[in-house]
Amino acid sequence: MRNIKLTIEYEGTNYHGWQVQKNAVTVQECIEKALSRLLGEKTGVVGCSRTDVGVHAYGQVAHFFTASAIPGEKFSYALNNLLPADIVIQKSEEEPENFHARYSSKGKRYRYLICNTAHQSALMRNRACHVRPELDFEQMRKAAEHFEGEHDFAAFQATGGQVRSTVREIYSMAVKRREDSLIELEVTGSGFLYNMVRIIAGTLIYVGMGKLAESDVPGIIRGLDRTKAGKTAPAQGLYLMEIYY
Amino acid sequence: MRNIKLTIEYEGTNYHGWQVQKNAVTVQECIEKALSRLLGEKTGVVGCSRTDVGVHAYGQVAHFFTASAIPGEKFSYALNNLLPADIVIQKSEEEPENFHARYSSKGKRYRYLICNTAHQSALMRNRACHVRPELDFEQMRKAAEHFEGEHDFAAFQATGGQVRSTVREIYSMAVKRREDSLIELEVTGSGFLYNMVRIIAGTLIYVGMGKLAESDVPGIIRGLDRTKAGKTAPAQGLYLMEIYY
User: Fold this and answer.
1) Do A121 and A223 lie in a common domain?
2) Pfam families given for it (chains A, B) (predicted)?
């Protein structure tokens, strides 16, 4: 059997997340259906990241096994003809048999977009978190620095996560001001707990609003108490940008 | 009567452009309907720019007259409650009686986005022009410089334009490479002929593909012949960014 790696871009707006579910259309299901049509046999794909409903991806990764003779790099073209326009296979390639989309991953990069305007944005309404009060960008930037490094991120995990250890390393965490009133958080790390990026984003939004001080953040991290961190920021601002192998 | 100026953002995907038409939903019509509901009387709005089907706006401007006592800056909040989510009044303000959205304008800024990737983008599919062959960015950047200044842009006007003079001044024309394989054209000028920005974009795409040389552009401008310029680039890449008064 050959092992094929897919790099997938999707707009999450119309999907109930990545993972196959009963009674709801998911990205994984659409790709499995397209693969089954292409190959003439039921084919399951294993994704790296179980993105939630409404979360977007520029670089989700999945793999599947096949006996087909189609060259690895041709799967993207064949599958894109069978997929809806809001799911696109940006790259397909053959990998060694032991490559695993989830277990082989060494790190991930996420982006979170905040639209800080008096009115919601027509163009970014499904693609950023809208925050009306003017945010203190400088305080957010300082607060973000506290997340860098290896920490126990238990305070930044939603219930529902099932992991042995809540220690993760954040390699870098940048807060940038973009034009058009967008604030962009870009975070790269070894791995992320369930909803971790959205809780970090919600905490930084609280700092920007003055509900938390920048200097509160180290204590919130050390306290390991979910209730002390900010609210989980909404899904539509989150982008899975890239997975490192 | 009071004269109210609206600054409007919209995603053009679901509309047949700005201008009211029979048998098709337009942005102008949606705003006029919302105003009529709010004010209890039929109210027409005059827009600055007749954007085509699929074209987006961050800063379309329109004005209307009303006897209502609603403060100018409150119209945005009231109208946004009545408008679909893909049309947002970002600002409303009272202007002197002689303010006219179209005739008072002194210039405009447009953006055109090109997504230069092997596969169409899931997230940008309605928001950029997809070009598969790798574009020569440096040649496009050089070609863009030729458009700056005052020229007769007759070669860059679609049929259907009804203007006395085809002379316009482009104040600045920048070509930037953005992340995620996007190329951004940003053009500011005194005014634009019908489809002028899209024909300029199409011409720069031809230069990027090698179908035209950068050094051909001055001759194409001087020749005043529409058939010598590039194809009209698709509407979904165009954004009306700002109108100057």
Assistant:
1) yes
2) PseudoU_synth_1 (PF01416)
- If asked whether residues B121 and B78 sit together in one domain, one would say no
B127 domain residue, yes or no: yes
Looking at residues A214-234, what average pLDDT do you find? 96
**B61 plus B85 within the same structural domain:** yes
Question: Which residue among A76, A85, A119 places its CB closest to the CB of B122?
Answer: A85
Task: Report pLDDT digits (tens) over B16-68.
Answer: 999 988 889 999 999 999 999 999 999 999 999 999 999 999 999 999 999 99
Q: Which residues of B120-129 are buried (b: 16+ CB within 10 A; e: fewer)?
A: bbbbbbbbbb
Q: What is the 3-state secondary structure (H, E, C) of B136-151?
A: CHHHHHHHHHCCCEEE
Of the three residues A66, A95, A124, the one that is the final residue of a domain is: A95
Report the number of distinct structural domains present in chain B. 2
Domain match, B40 and B154 both: no
pLDDT tens-digit profile of A107-144?
A: 999 999 999 999 999 999 999 999 999 999 999 999 99
Strand partners, B152: B167
Nearest CA in chain A to B8: A122
Question: How many beta-carbon pairs under 8 angstroms link A with B?
Answer: 60
Question: For B221-245, how does the pLDDT look when each residue is reduced to its tens digit (9 = 90+)?
Answer: 999 999 999 999 999 999 999 999 9
Residue with tokens 């003055």: A210
d(CA B195, CA A6): 39
Same domain, yes or no, for B208 and B240? Answer: yes
Contacts of A243 (CB under 8 A, 6+ apart): A48, A49, A59, A60, A61, A101, A105, A107, A108, A109
Is B100 part of any domain? Answer: no
Q: Which of B80, B85, B125 sits opposite A85 (nearest CB)?
A: B125
Structure tokens of A203?
A: 């905490």
Q: Record the tokens describing residue B67, joined without a space.
A: 């006897």
Q: Which residues contact A198 (CB under 8 A, 6 or more apart)?
A: A112, A232, A233, A234, A235, A237, A238
Residue B24 DSSP code = B
In a domain, A91, yes or no: yes
User: What is the model's pLDDT at position B135?
Assistant: 97
Q: Identify the domain boundary among B63, B95, B127.
A: B95
The 10 Å Cβ neighbour count of residue A76 is 20
Same domain, A89 and A165: no
Rounded CA-CA distance A153/A194 in Å is 10
In this structure, the answer to whether residues B79 and B144 fall within a common structural domain is no
- For residue B88, give the chain A residue with the closest CA: A122
